[in-house]
UniProtKB/TrEMBL annotation:
Pfam families in UniProt: DUF4440
Top-rank lineage group of the source organism: Bacteria
Organism from which the protein derives: Vulcaniibacterium tengchongense
Name the record gives this protein: Uncharacterized protein (TIGR02246 family)
InterPro entries (alphabetical): DUF4440, NTF2-like_dom_sf, Steroid_delta5-4_isomerase
Domain DUF4440 intervals: 11-120
């Protein structure tokens, strides 16, 4: 993994690791004691658990998926911590039981710098949904 020089570098590094389906590289973006909440509300702590959460789906239903991240904002919390918000568009292919489709999520990530290295301390991923129906929506759909 290329070291993250600033918190925003995590967006591209996360996207690249996902699109290569390289879960070891994905795990390397996180501090050893990091937490992760996926878009379905599954919470895990620790890099090993983060990798274990993602490896099976990348070997199966997300094996032909791609991810595209787009920054929203950065909120600094001192010199060694920042909160990032970013859009993430997941495009899944024929390997998914529901067939090819696209999902938009909003990600909140807390990054901290330890020993000069930026890594993700906590990440939470929320699927965009219509609050009246619960149906997933894309962020650029009319009426959104």
């Amino acid at each position: 993994m290329t070291p993250l020089k600033q918190p925003e570098d995590a967006l591209q590094a996360f996207q690249d690791a996902w699109n290569r389906h390289d879960m070891q590289s994905l795990g390397a973006l996180f501090h050893p004691d990091a937490t992760f909440v996926n878009r379905f509300g599954h919470y895990v702590r620790g890099v090993e658990a983060i990798v274990q959460m993602h490896a099976p789906i990348h070997a199966t239903i997300y094996s032909d998926s791609t991810l595209e991240n787009e920054p929203i904002d950065r909120v600094p919390i001192g010199d060694d911590a920042a909160v990032l918000h970013f859009w993430s568009r997941l495009a899944v292919g024929a390997a998914h039981p529901a067939g090819p489709h696209v999902v938009d999520t909003l990600i909140l990530a807390v990054l901290t710098r330890r020993a000069g290295e930026w890594r993700i301390q906590a990440l939470e991923n929320v699927t965009l949904a219509n609050p009246r129906t619960g149906k997933a929506v894309l962020r650029d759909e009319p009426g959104r």
